[in-house]
Amino acid sequence: MGFPAIAARPVSLNIGDAAKASGVSTKMIRHYESIGLIDAARRTDSGYRLYSEQDVQVLQFIHRGRALGFSLEQIRELLALWQDKGRASADVRALARSHIEELNRKIAEMEAMKRTLEKLASCCRGDNRPDCPILDDLAMH
Predict the structure, then answer these.
(1) Is there a domain that residue 117 lies in?
(2) Where do the coiled-coil regions begin and end (predicted)?
(3) pLDDT digit string (tens) for 92-126?
(4) Cβ of 44: how many Cβ atoms within 10 Å?
(5) C-alpha 66: how far from its chain's center?
(6) Is 15 a member of any domain?
(7) Rounded to whole angstroms, how far apart are CA atoms 28 and 33?
(8) 113 in any annotated domain
(9) Where are the beta strands (DSSP E) in the chain?
(10) Beta partners for residue 42, in sequence order
């Protein structure tokens, strides 16, 4: 004789524990819920949010996506692709390649900003005199 099978109970975490487990702040969890990026949390009778392990996995996914610089809209697309088991990996790759192009553009812009600031800083004497080419340049543009 065996014991009757016991259904596994879903783990229910409060928002603080879900935040710690996922790396996403409680404020951002609420924000993601308010914009529909994540499903509304289940609630206790007293109104506290409850999160399952699956909810935490989604939050971890979002956290990693944000760390890679994906926008919230891109993450929304990635989440839909992740949850669609019939997806084509080509769709995911295309989104990633598009993001890489965007990052390359931003890097080029930042490198140009850095070169400009380096040039301006090299022109500045950095002494006690009031004249400053850095401030002059900012005022002219």
Answers:
(1) no
(2) 93-120
(3) 999 999 999 999 999 999 999 999 999 999 988 88
(4) 11
(5) 2
(6) yes
(7) 8
(8) no
(9) 42-43, 49-50
(10) 50
Residue 55 domain-assigned? yes
Helix (H, G, I), strand (E, B) or coil at 63: helix
pLDDT, averaged across the chain: 91
CB 98 within 8 A of CB 91: no
Q: Kindly state the percentage of the chain with pLDDT values over 70.
A: 92
Which residues 6+ apart lie within 8 Å of 24 measured at CB? 18, 32, 59, 60, 62, 63
Query: Please, which residues have CB within 8 angstroms of residue 114's CB and are 6 or more apart in sequence?
Result: none
CATH number at 24 reads 1.10.1660.10
Provide the pLDDT for residue 10. 61
* Token digits of residue 88: 């084509």
Domain containing 21 equals: 11-70
Q: Distances in Å between the alpha carbon of 118 and those of 9, 14, 40, 63?
A: 59, 49, 48, 34
pLDDT (tens digit, 9 = 90+) per residue, 16-45?
999 999 999 999 999 999 999 999 999 999
**Per the structure, how many domains does the chain have?**
1
Per the CB < 8 A criterion, the answer to whether 74 and 65 are in contact is yes
The whole-model pTM stands at 0.79
